[in-house]
């Protein structure tokens, strides 16, 4: 026989003397009972009998007075030998070989017959002794082979399992210091008491003869098989899900540390492989060394973050991300409250309470720890030390964090510190400790399955046997792989953590221990003097039974039992409430997505309404009619790239991308159904039928025949048009459009499988990949809609396409990152750099890329993309935006110069992206920016009758004519003139105008809410839950006035909300219902929504926004002036000269289609005195009908007066250069009054105005020379 079981106990553990059979023989020790561990016929008293003998053995071998010595562990041995250079006494045996006790040896094999179970005489007569020879390996396995752990190892294991102080600061911020200290103390004490109860029951029920392996064994010996199976099921579920969730969260940490450079699936697989390797540690004694490092690493994080908190402010950026209204530049002082903090509701307080409850949860694995201890009597030492350390950490760290960071304390404290380097370091250490905890959970979880499934049902050998060890080696990777599969396939798995907390952690720590202790005590204390177990017969004779017996046992320790009963009932009620909350939150999470397949998309914050549900009225309805009767509604009749497009059998196309016709189709579908224009509807249906009838046999849509020329990009706007058409005409969609879409998606699936054919360029392909990869969000958006609304059994194929497009798309989260985003004028950067970033800085790509994070977040379910999206939008408009809400990009982004141009394509794509983001995320800022672009940047680029447009517009544009030396990056000489095709044709065919804006004006909020999201005159008709038909008409001249009148008709009550813009003053604004009392507005901080309940029947709601003039500083020491949603500019009267379209002479184009040049008649080179600005409204501001067309320079009923003077500022190369800087703006003449008008109506305009001081005595004033 090998000397002991050193290979099992591990270094540092002295061999168990009972593992040696030296000098023993089969005659002296005839047999060992091979009793089934979970034999229901074994009486309760028998467990008590052998447990008492085993404890006595342990005391004799390892208790006080024994010669047992504990050797140094590997860590201390290394330190002493290698660092301190001390001689280390290695473990040795100094204990005489003991005689084997009866508890391990047994009296014989007792055969129980069911018919004799109640007959003592029969039991005696049937007693059989069957001596057998016991081999060394059998004896090692049968005795205490796994019992090697010390109380020191238990201390580290308990601390690793329970210690989680990094949310305590946040918990205190939700409860306050007083309640926080009280609740943490109470629940810490209760958790310690539960651990004590489990320890006491284990000592009195475990023996070498009937060893306990897990929590379920106590349950079995107290209440029987039903409770054992319950515990084992919950325990297995908890540990397995813990492993799965830690794999997922660790993968997210690795992904964040790699800044998105590593594929997320790779990150998760790395964590799974790490678990497969480390999980091969089988015994908890060996694992204790690893757990000790986890404890010390967590303590390092605690001390490090405490030091950082003392010398740096909280992470205001993180707080601002969760609180959109937070002013990061002017944060409120840190506040600490002794009682419940003000401003928080009961939900916040309960969140803090539950944090305290779960902070001490960890008793789930206590029995497993006891089962591997050499001397379980010492468990109390490890438990007490661990509980005291954990409590001290919670108190010190939680109070310190709250006092240092106050209301800014974050749920993961080391992410709430501001230095990025320390955040990263702590994230890495937290990743390591999390994986260690996951391996611990996996270790116990596998043992629970092995002992209860493998041993009982599959007859697996003992885990300590050679075969058992090999099974362990094989089963560990299977367990971790299954956990990984669950993380990738179970939808909304993150929400299951609340179920684990309430259904498992709370149960094993607070509910089950007092429940089992009650049953244990009632049975133990009910025993009468004559009811002891007879080891000779293996029987117990009870003198009574039933409730009388249980009541006798309960009365023995009445007060303790009453306390345990109250403890149990209180925990049970808490469990019920926790499960209710858990299931409610899970149901809400699952109900938020229509599709219930394994792959689930995050829900949109608001649900768009089908095309045709919303109709424009008032001035907006007139604008849409002008679109239908103007260039957008007539392109298909004469414009060659549309009329004779290859898509329709023609041969006219401006680009090998074949994008002209899909662009126009995407714009025309919503225009036709929003205006209900029969002519346009007929045309759309005709060309749709033609294109689908000519779909290729393999499913390809489009004119491309050669595989090498097929690229997905032009299909994006086509599918956007298809999506809208299906919503407007569901029957047509189901019979014709949707089958065609699915045929194409199946082809796309096979192409993406073939090295991403048609998406990623490879040698031999004849297309430019950058357009499809940079604009991928447009196609993924449609695929998400198809996946949720009309999957038609193709969920896996659609999901695969979405994932592949996401994986191979140009990553806008890379561009929208602090380290990569170029915040200056791109002309000042090296050309090689800007060329390498061209897909991100192309003006139209930039407009479409704004929604990338919002779209992809729904797919990958990573809220990091929320910050990506917010950063992208904010930085794009802050560093490359116009005051009118557009992106400065004359093909490529520039800086902030008012000389540079913004493309009409970019404007309409920005409007669509921003409105989508408000639907997807719900941030009010996205809706405000949508209106800013729609009511300013869009109309200024179109002639009032919608028959001519600009390719690019300048913020300061005093003249619109041919520029032989244009100041643009890549725009021709006619680019800023108005015409049919003033430059590249893309802005002619992609004339979405208000066609995408109007269908986004109203949205659903849940099942019973309707929201006016984008303000303006419109009528909506839709149906909410329970067939609640709703009709709302909003009559308003918004944005020219800030008064809205809603006439509402509803079948039953519903929630109605309207968005309050950020520029409105809520306290001074009012809402009034049925001409009743006026109420101030109370908008939601995030969405900006003011919500009210509208009763059934007819209701009138009136809203009036109060605001004031806003002056915004711009580049070159200039200003822009706003009132409400409108930007105001200096309008310049001009001389208009018309000519026939350059490429459509004579009658090739309708007579209304002309090209224009405009020369100014007024002074343009002026500066204004900002102190003299004053808002004026005209008498017709609130008329039922405004002058038509409203975007004419003399039609809007509002203006702002100003005092101005001319300054020395001349045209250069036919355009206005950047204005002179401050200090060089002396007036060249007398001051005079000017009138600023809405920017969208002024085709010639100055919107970034230099300022001067025109008050008496100012040096800026003009001073006439001698003789004047």
TrEMBL record:
Principal location: membrane
Membrane-topology descriptor: Multi-pass membrane protein
Swiss-Prot/TrEMBL keywords: Membrane, Transmembrane, Transmembrane helix
Location relative to the cell: Membrane
Cellular component GO terms, alphabetical: membrane
Gene Ontology terms, MF aspect: L-amino acid transmembrane transporter activity
Membrane-spanning intervals of the chain: 153-172, 178-199, 257-278, 290-310, 383-400, 420-450, 470-487, 493-512, 558-583
Domain Amino acid transporter transmembrane intervals: 148-518
Biased composition (Basic and acidic residues): 110-122
Ranges for region Disordered: 103-122
Any Pfam family: Aa_trans
Family to which the UniProt record says this protein belongs: Belongs to the amino acid/polyamine transporter 2 family.
Record-linked PANTHER family: AMINO ACID TRANSPORTER, AMINO ACID TRANSPORTER TRANSMEMBRANE DOMAIN-CONTAINING PROTEIN
Protein name, entry field: Amino acid transporter transmembrane domain-containing protein
Organism for this UniProt entry: Fonsecaea erecta
């Amino acid at each position: 026989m090998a000397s002991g079981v050193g290979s099992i106990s591990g270094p540092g553990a002295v061999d168990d003397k009972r593992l040696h059979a030296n000098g023993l023989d089969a005659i002296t020790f005839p047999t060992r009972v091979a009793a089934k561990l979970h034999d229901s016929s074994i009486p309760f008293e028998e467990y008590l009998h052998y447990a008492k003998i085993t404890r006595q053995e342990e005391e004799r071998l390892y208790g006080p007075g024994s010669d047992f010595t504990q050797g140094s562990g590997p860590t201390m041995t290394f330190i002493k030998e290698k660092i301190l250079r001390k001689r280390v006494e290695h473990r040795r045996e100094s204990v005489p070989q003991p005689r084997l006790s009866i508890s391990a040896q047994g009296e014989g094999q007792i055969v129980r017959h069911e018919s004799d179970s109640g007959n003592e005489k029969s039991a005696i007569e049937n007693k059989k002794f069957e001596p057998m020879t016991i081999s060394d390996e059998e004896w090692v396995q049968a005795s205490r082979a796994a019992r090697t752990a010390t109380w020191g190892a238990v201390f580290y294991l308990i601390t690793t399992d329970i210690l989680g102080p990094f949310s305590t600061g946040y918990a205190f911020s939700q409860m306050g210091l007083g309640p926080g200290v009280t609740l943490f103390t109470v629940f810490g004490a209760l958790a310690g008491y539960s651990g004590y109860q489990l320890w006491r029951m284990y000592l009195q029920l475990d023996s070498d003869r009937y060893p306990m392996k897990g929590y379920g064994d106590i349950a079995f010996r107290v209440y029987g098989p039903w409770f054992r199976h319950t515990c084992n099921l919950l325990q297995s579920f908890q540990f397995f899900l813990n492993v799965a969730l830690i794999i997922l969260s660790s993968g997210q940490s690795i992904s964040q540390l790699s800044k998105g450079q590593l594929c997320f699936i790779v990150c998760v697989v790395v964590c799974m492989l790490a678990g497969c390797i480390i999980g091969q540690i089988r015994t908890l004694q060996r694992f204790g060394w690893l757990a000790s490092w986890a404890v010390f690493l967590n303590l390092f994080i605690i001390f490090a973050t405490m030091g950082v908190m003392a010398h740096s402010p909280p992470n205001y950026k993180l707080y601002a991300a969760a609180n959109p209204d937070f002013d990061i530049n002017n944060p409120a002082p840190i506040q600490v409250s002794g009682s419940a903090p003000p401003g928080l509701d009961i939900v916040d307080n309960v969140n803090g309470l539950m944090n305290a409850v779960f902070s001490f949860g960890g008793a789930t694995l206590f029995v497993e720890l006891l089962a591997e201890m050499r001397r379980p009597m010492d468990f109390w030492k490890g438990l007490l030390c661990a509980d005291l350390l954990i409590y001290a950490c919670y108190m010190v760290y939680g109070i310190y964090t709250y006092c240092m960071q106050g209301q800014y304390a974050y749920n993961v404290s080391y992410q709430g510190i501001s230095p990025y380097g320390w955040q990263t370091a702590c994230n890495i250490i937290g990743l390591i400790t999390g994986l260690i905890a996951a391996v611990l959970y996996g270790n116990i979880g596998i043992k629970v399955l092995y002992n209860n499934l493998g041993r009982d049902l599959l007859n697996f050998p003992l885990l300590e046997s050679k075969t058992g060890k090999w099974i362990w080696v094989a089963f560990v990777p299977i367990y971790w792989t299954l956990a990984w599969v669950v993380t990738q396939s179970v939808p909304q798995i993150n929400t299951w953590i609340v179920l684990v907390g309430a259904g498992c952690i709370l149960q094993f720590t607070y509910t089950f221990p007092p429940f089992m202790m009650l049953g244990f005590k009632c049975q133990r204390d009910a025993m009468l003097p004559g009811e002891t177990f007879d080891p000779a017969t293996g029987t117990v004779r009870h003198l009574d039974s039933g409730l009388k017996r249980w009541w006798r046992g309960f009365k023995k320790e009445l007060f303790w039992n009453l306390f345990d009963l109250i403890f149990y009932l209180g925990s049970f009620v808490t469990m019920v409430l926790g499960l209710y909350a858990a299931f409610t939150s899970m149901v809400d999470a699952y109900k938020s997505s229509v599709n219930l397949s394994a792959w689930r998309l995050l829900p949109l914050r608001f649900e768009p309404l089908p095309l045709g549900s919303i109709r424009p009225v008032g001035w907006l309805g007139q604008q849409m009619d002008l679109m239908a009767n103007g260039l957008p509604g007539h392109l298909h009749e004469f414009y060659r790239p549309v009329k004779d497009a290859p898509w329709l059998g023609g041969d006219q196309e401006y680009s090998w991308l074949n994008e002209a016709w899909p662009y126009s189709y995407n714009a025309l579908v919503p225009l036709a159904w929003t205006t209900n224009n029969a002519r346009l509807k007929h045309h759309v249906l005709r060309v749709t039928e033609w294109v689908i009838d000519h779909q290729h046999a393999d499913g390809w849509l489009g004119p491309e025949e050669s595989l090498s020329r097929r690229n997905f990009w032009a299909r994006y706007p086509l599918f956007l048009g298809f999506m809208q058409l299906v919503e407007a005409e569901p029957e047509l969609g189901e019979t014709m459009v949707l089958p065609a879409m699915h045929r194409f998606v199946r082809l796309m699936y096979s192409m993406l499988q073939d090295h991403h054919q048609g998406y990623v360029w490879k040698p031999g392909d004849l297309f430019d990949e950058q357009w499809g990869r940079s604009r991928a969000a447009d196609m993924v958006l449609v695929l998400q809609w198809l996946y949720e609304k009309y999957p038609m059994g193709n969920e896996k194929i659609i999901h695969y396409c979405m994932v592949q497009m996401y994986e191979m798309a140009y990553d806008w989260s890379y561009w929208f990152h602090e380290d990569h985003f170029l915040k200056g004028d791109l002309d000042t950067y090296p050309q090689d750099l800007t060329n390498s970033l061209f897909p991100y800085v192309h003006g139209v790509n930039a407009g479409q890329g704004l929604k990338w994070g919002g779209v992809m977040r729904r797919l990958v379910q990573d809220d990091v993309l929320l910050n990506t999206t917010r950063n992208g939008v904010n930085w794009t408009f802050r560093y490359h935006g116009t005051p009118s809400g557009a992106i400065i990009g004359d093909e490529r982004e520039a800086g902030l110069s008012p000389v540079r141009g913004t493309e009409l394509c970019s404007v309409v794509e920005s409007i669509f992206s921003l409105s989508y983001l408000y639907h997807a995320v719900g941030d009010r800022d996205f809706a405000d920016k949508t209106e800013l672009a729609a009511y300013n940047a869009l109309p200024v680029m179109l002639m009032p009758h919608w028959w001519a447009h600009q390719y690019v517009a300048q913020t300061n544009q005093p003249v619109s004519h041919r520029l032989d030396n244009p100041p643009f990056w890549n725009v021709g000489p006619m680019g800023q003139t108005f015409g049919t095709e003033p430059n590249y044709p893309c802005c002619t065919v992609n004339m979405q105008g208000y066609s995408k804006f109007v269908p986004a004006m109203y949205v659903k909020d849940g099942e019973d809410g309707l929201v006016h999201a984008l303000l303006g005159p419109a009528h909506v008709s839709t149906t909410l839950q329970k067939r609640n038909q709703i009709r709302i008409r909003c009559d308003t001249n918004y944005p020219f006035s800030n008064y809205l009148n809603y006439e509402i008709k509803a079948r039953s009550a519903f929630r109605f909300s309207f968005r309050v813009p950020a520029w409105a003053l809520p306290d001074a604004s009012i809402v009034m219902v049925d001409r009743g009392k006026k109420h101030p507005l109370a908008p939601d901080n995030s969405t900006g929504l003011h919500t009210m309940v509208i009763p059934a029947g007819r209701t009138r709601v009136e809203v009036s926004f109060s605001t004031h003039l806003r002056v915004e500083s711009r580049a070159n020491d200039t200003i822009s002036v706003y009132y409400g949603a409108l930007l105001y500019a200096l309008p310049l009267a001009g001389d208009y000269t018309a000519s026939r379209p350059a490429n459509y002479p004579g009658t090739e184009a309708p007579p209304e289609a002309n090209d224009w040049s405009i020369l100014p008649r007024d002074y343009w080179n002026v500066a204004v005195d900002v102190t003299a600005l004053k808002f004026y409204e005209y008498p017709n501001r609130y008329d039922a009908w405004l002058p038509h067309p409203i975007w004419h320079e003399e039609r809007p009923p509002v203006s702002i007066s100003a005092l101005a003077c001319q300054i020395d500022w001349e045209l250069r190369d036919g355009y206005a250069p950047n204005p002179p800087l401050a200090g060089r703006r002396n007036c060249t003449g007398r001051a005079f009054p000017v009138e600023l008008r809405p920017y969208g109506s002024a085709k010639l305009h100055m919107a970034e105005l230099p300022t001067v001081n025109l008050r008496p005595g100012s040096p800026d004033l003009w001073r006439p020379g001698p003789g004047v």
